[in-house]
């Protein structure tokens, strides 16, 4: 299994960063690749339980992912499972994501730890996706 870790520093407090990565209102502003919107979702990482999102690109292609929020520890971390759905809505292999927030001298740091991704190609695709989403998060918190 392949794991992926990404870090990004922000000049906001840990509490503000945690809000941005856990609340529905903020998640909808940065969730998914650039150029995607989220027409269907139950994104709420403030409490444990199920979640899902459908991301749609400009051509109308839809990408559904779902999981369970496994832990919430404000303002330090949120963990959740992740599995893509296929065209018949069957869930694929499950991986696990942890968003960790720590204070820095200039504000706070977000670490995304995505584990059990299967292989290098899947990891590379997720790295591109998370990197694109992080650019949107940068814009939100700028």
Write up what this structure looks like:
The protein is of the alpha+beta class and 142 residues long. The protein has a single domain (4-141), classed as Alpha-D-Glucose-1,6-Bisphosphate, Chain A, domain 4 (2-Layer Sandwich). 27% of the residues lie in helices and 40% in strands. The chain is built from 3 helices and 7 strands. It has helices at 14-22, 24-30, 120-141; strands at residues 4-10, 37-41, 49-56, 62-73, 77-84, 95-103, 108-115. A 7-stranded antiparallel β-sheet has the order 1-7-6-5-4-3-2, covered by helices on one side. Helix 1 (14-22) packs across helix 2 (24-30). The mean pLDDT is 96.
* CATH domain class name: Alpha Beta
Structural class: alpha+beta
Spatial strand order of the main sheet: 1-7-6-5-4-3-2
Structural Rg? 14 Å
CATH topology: Alpha-D-Glucose-1,6-Bisphosphate, Chain A, domain 4
Q: Write out the CATH superfamily name.
A: START domain
Mean pLDDT: 96
User: What's the domain count?
Assistant: 1
Number of strands: 7
Number of helices: 3
Main pleated sheet: 7 strands, antiparallel
Distance between the termini: 35 Å
Instruction: State the assembly state of the protein chains.
Output: single chain
**Helical proportion?**
25-40%
Shape: globular
Uncertain spans: none
Order of helices and strands: EHHEEEEEEH
> Which CATH-level-2 architecture?
2-Layer Sandwich
Domain Activator of Hsp90 ATPase homologue 1/2-like C-terminal: 12-141
Pfam family, one: AHSA1
Family: Belongs to the AHA1 family.
InterPro entries: ASHA1/2-like_C (IPR013538), START-like_dom_sf (IPR023393)
